[in-house]
Every structure is written in C-alpha cells, then in structure tokens.
Amino acid sequence: MSKSSFASLAQRLLGLLLLALLLGHAGGYWELPGVGGVERKIYDVRLLLFAPAQPETRIVMLDIDERALTEYGRWPWSRARLAELIDQSFVQQGALLLGLDLILAEPDDSSGLSSLQALAQGPLRNVPGFARQLQALTPRLDHDGRLAEVLSKHAVVLGFHYSDAVDATSSGTLPAPALRATAVGEPLNALRDWRAYRGNLERLQRATPWGGFLNALADRDGITRRVPVLARHGELIHVSLPMAMAQAVTGATALIPEFDAAGKLGALRMETPRGVLRIPTDAHGNVLLPYRARAGLLPQVSAADVLAGRLPAQSLKGKLVLLGSSAPGLTDLHATPLAQTLPGAALHAMLLTGLLNGSVAATPSYTAALQILQLLVPGLLLLLLLPRLGWWQGLTLSAACMTALLGLNAWAWQVWRENWPPAAPLLLVLGLYSLQVFFGQFAEALARRRLATLFRQYVPPELVALMSRDPQRYSMAGRSAELSVLFADVRGFTTLSERLPPHELAALMNRYFSVMTDIVRAHRGTLDKYVGDALMAFWGAPVDDPAHALHAVQAALAMQAALPALNEEFAARGWQALRVTIGINTGTMVVGDMGSRHRRAYTVLGDAVNIAARLQELSGKLEVPVVIGPDTRAALADWPCRELDQVVIRGGSERITIYEALAPAASAEHPRS
Fold first, then answer.
1. Do residues 436 and 307 share a domain?
2. What is the pLDDT of residue 532?
3. Which residue of 297, 577, 591, 668 has the fewest CB atoms within a 10 Å radius of its CB?
C-alpha cells in the first residue's frame, strides 16, 4: 500500500470512528464532552437571530420597586398594604388576572393583634369590656384576614417555591394539585420530585383556587433556557405560576397529559371553553422558554403609583398582572441567552405569552432518530467524497453541507416551531473536513518527501524546493520534451588511470566530479549519470526551463573556466592536469524514470542525446572546448558563437553545422557566426 493510500484509509477510518461516537451520543448511549456546550451556544445564536422583537402588551409587571419602598417603607410590607395594592389593581385599574411572584409564608404580626389576644387571655382577661373591644377591632387588625378577603374576591394566582436542599423542610400550604401521579401512572415518574416546598399561609391559599410554583432551571453554564411547567412533590403534581395563570385566564376545565409512542410525556393538553391549547414538553415536564428580543421591555407599573392613585383609572384594564419586585435584594435574577439578566417575573411573563399564543417550541420525540439521520446522510457522503477531493473542493462541499443543516434547522424553528439539535451533525462535518485538511497536508508532506528523495540526487536543492511547493505537477513518468543535454569527458583518461594508484585516481575523480556537478547544479541542470570519466547532464526537466540551452552552455563554459584552478590543486598533489571536452545538443527527447526492475534512473533518450555524445567526441578531435549543435545555437540568440564546420554525425545521414560556444570575454577574438 502506498503512503498516499494509507493516508486516505486512515482518514476514512478516523472519520468512521468520529461518526460512530456522534451516533452513540445522538442515540443517548453516552454523552460526549463539549457537544452539549456547542448545542447551547448554537441555540442562543438562533434565539438572537429569530426571537420576535415585539413586546408583549397584554402582560404588565406591577413592580415593588425602589420608589415604592422609599414611599411606603422597607419590605416586607404589611398584608393590609398588600391587600390594598391588589384590591386597587382590580377595582380602580381593571386588572383581569394577577399572579404573585411572592411567597406569603409567615403570619403578619405587624398590627400587634397576637399580643392583644395574649393579653385578653392572660393579664387582662378580667378587665371589663377589653375582650369586647378587641373583638370589634380584630377585623381591622387582622391583616392576613384582610388579604384573604381580597384574594377571595379577585382572580389571583399565588406562588410557592420548591426546594431540593438537603436540610429543607416543608412549610405553608400547597394549592390543589393539577394531577396526581397515582392517577396517571408510571409515565409521570420522570417529573422532578422535589424534596420540600415553601408555600403560603393556609388561610391565604384557601382563599383562592389557583397557585403555581416559581422555580426556574439553569443549564450547566448558568443560563436559563427552559423551565418546568409540571413538577411533583410525592404523588402531588402542580403546575408553574404561568401555567396556573393560563388555566385561570382561559377558564381551563381540564389538564390532560399526552404521551409519545415510547410512553413518555410529550405535551399537555389544556381544554378550555374556546378550544384546546397544546403545550409541548419534554419527558421531565420542561418547556423551552419562548424568549422575546425585547424581553427587558416588559411594561412595568410602580406599586407606589397604584397605591397613591397616581395612575389614570383603568390603566390595567384587561391586563394580566405579575406582582413582583425589581428592587435590589428582593428579586431573583436569571441569566438569559439574550445577554441580559431578567427578574423572575419577566420569565413568567414570557412563558405566559408563549402558552397563550401557542408559540412554545417543541423538542420532538423523534429528535434522536432525526439526529442520526442528519449524521448519516452528510457523514457517509463526506466520507466517500472528501478523500478524493482537493482542499478547496472539500471546503466547498463541507460548507454546503453545513449550510443545508443550518437552513433546515432554521426552517424547523421558524415554520414548525421545533427545536432540532444541530451540534452533532455540524461537528461531524467540521471534524471530517478537518481530517481531510490534516491528511491532505500529511499526504502532501509525504509527496514532497518522496519527490525530494527521488530528485535530490539529480536536481539542485533550490529546484527540489521549488518542485515541493506543488509536488502533483512533477513525476518521473516518461514524457517527450525539448531539452538540452551535455556530455563532458576527460581526455587521455586511460593514460591517466595507468599512471596513478587506484586510491589516488579515485580521489582525483571524486574531486573533479564534485566541482563539475556543483557547476551543473548552479546553472539549474539535472545530473544524469557518471560513466567512467564522463559526466552527463540535461536542462529543462523535471522543472521547465525556457532558457535550458543558454543555461547548458553557461554551465559548460563555467566547467572549462574552473579547470585551471582545479589543475593547480592537482599539480600540488603531483597529479596530471586534466583536459575536458564538452558537447551540447538541443532537441526533442524522452525524459523519465527508465531502466529495469533491478535498477532505474531518471535519464534522457533519443537521437538528440546521441548527437550530443558525438559532438563531445568532435570537441576532442577539433581541439575546441565546447561544441554545440545547430538547435542549441538557434536557441542562444545573440550569444557569441563561432561556426566550425558542417559534418555528418556518425550514425546519421544529413550534414549539420556545428559551432563553438564562446565565453563573452573571448568573443572579440573570434568572429561571430
């Protein structure tokens, strides 16, 4: 198996492993770290893009704000003042329904009634008329009784709070349950079963038929994205404050849970005189909060203005009122996906809007199957195609897959109000493309190394570096091209070899070939081979070189120019001076990796190569340092040359004109051809 094939196989195997891990995550067999965090961030971005910008005008927050506390004293207020506030909201301002984002858990002793009652039963029990006077004053001093009376006259929904603290104990009274777990059976066991609760005073809770819990849930990152509408304490199942308000304002006659094919809770059906409202939930009774982009602009009315009568009459007519507080220290703030902290009353208002509008988005029961399908379709497509594509094509295909996934997700959210978790499919596409980039670079690095290994013995390092930038362009496969080829031979080598000991002859030739090869490489030439005392090189391959003839001639003249210094070095060691004959020819030849299954070489073949070898022989016979053929001369343009003769090359039948290539400095001594 080739290294590139191995890289492609490794890419596919790792891609299959990633697909399998994400399929297991989507199927609920395990949870991959980080996927949930990505899911939440994508959900938040989608909310920012698509959350409706219109504020909800049907719901108003009656705010016990800092101004109200300044005018009427610190919290907690007396129940008599709270009763006055609630009564005026209905009688003078025309509120339709009021929900308390407050818990009235402790008795109000601010009037001193309990102390007077203790005196009447103790030290003053025998005082004439004291008991009778106390009885007459009791209705005015019983603030809890006054509030209970107001609650019984108006449509008010009380709030209570669940707790899971280890040391929590229950207090107060719960409203009547919406359902009983024993009546519904096993499917509602998935609802969160809270340890304890903090409810309202019994006399207050009994004064109104409605009540709901105030709890909201935060995800792992501390942001509230979903809230429960059903929760349980033992077998008693209650609804949230917004759900209770929705039941009260619609006159709901029944609340019926719906279960999916797997027997899990999937929705609540609220039957009203005007029809049926269906609220999608998850198996735990939670719903996605229908956030609004302008949620922070919930209409607010200061409690101080209602108590002081500063509001125009009927300012709250037909409104659903949430009584809460925005004063620091009195309100519970929640981090939201819309980059702002909101009081609990704002969350209740948004959920109540969604319940009444039918705009609560569902996470469908087939989410797992949907995710698996969204993983398999792009996953198998990319696994099949990416290893065959370049990085740009792979990027285009991956971007198209991600765009399609995001488009389907946005369509489902906007049109069908369904929440399709997109993180796993998007991470799969991103992961598979990342593998393509990694293994593409790995394969390219292997190609560069292979190219360098193949050509470094033939081509100068700077050309190898140039070839490595785009290794796909270069190969050793045979091809036909116009090139220039050079043969250089040492004259009288036989005599020289007879005079020198073998080790000295080897040292001499090694030094000679090193100098000549450096010159070839310095002039962008490709070394072909050494044959005895002969050197063969060519120009124009594997890297294209339009000036291959010029570079070959320049290299030949540089080789001749290097001989005097080299011969001085040899003379110092007692060696004979060398004379070199060179022939160069230009023409069409075959270049590539050739040889047998035992040994191969990157070389050139053809008549033009044979002519170059014959020109080198003529160089020796004519005592001319560099002899070139007619095609080489034609390619040199105005380079100085001297015509030598017209000859018939051995093995040929036609006469050709041969030339001596001159160094520019010597051209004045010889006429140009």
1. no
2. 87
3. 668
